[in-house]
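Open question from group meeting: does this chain pack into something compact, or does most of it stay loose? Before anyone orders reagents, we agreed to write out a predicted structure and look at it together. Recording both the input and the output here so the notebook holds the full record.
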Amino acid sequence: MKPVAIFRHARGEGPAYFATYLERRAIPWKLFALDEGRAVPKDARRFSGLAFMGGAMSVNDDLPWVKPLLELVREAVRKDVPLLGHCLGGQLMSKALGGEVTRARVKEIGWGEVAVADNNVAREWFAPLSAFESFHWHGETFSIPPGATRVLTNAHCANQGFATGKHLGLQCHVEMTEELVRNWCEGGADEIRAAAASPGVQAPAKIEKNLAARVAALHKTADRIYDRWSQGLSK
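Structure tokens returned:
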């Protein structure tokens, strides 16, 4: 089986639980550490699927890997290679497919419920779930690109996820581990303090409360999502 290509845009935002999921199911994967200057591949068909992780930067920034990644997303859609985006990754997918990425009305940092949209595409991806608690850390948001369907939403961000065919773009983070949550809270302490007035931002103590149980529940949800996505992987 060809490997899943995983694109890392920041050292602190690697594949985390997504890599664990792939390894448990004996699905090979290859990391492209763009933060270390790794070149973006041009042929999506070298891989069974493409997954994009998060990052504090914007897809609207003039970074050397943004344009090549946008083209790779479009190439993957043309060649029917499944795409999976986490937060920044979902924003990359949206922009590549004709959507827009803009400042969010409310910054979100911490835990929050995400609702599954009331449509057949959403049910195909998430049934029997109607809602779940996910992790959030974003100040921008994507629009639903032409031809795609909104599949997730919540009180602070209307577009928490979209799907089109084999492809799924998420605004929320379902790949979190306990270690990753704690590291982000430590490294992002200044950002949390600066945005404390936002109704979507939680203090580190609240974020880390009952962390083991919350992460375990999130992994069960992630398993469902990744199971559905991996069905489309080319063998």
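Observations to bring back to the group:
The longest strand covers residues 101-116.
Residues 4-230 form a domain with the Rossmann fold fold (CATH 3.40.50.880).
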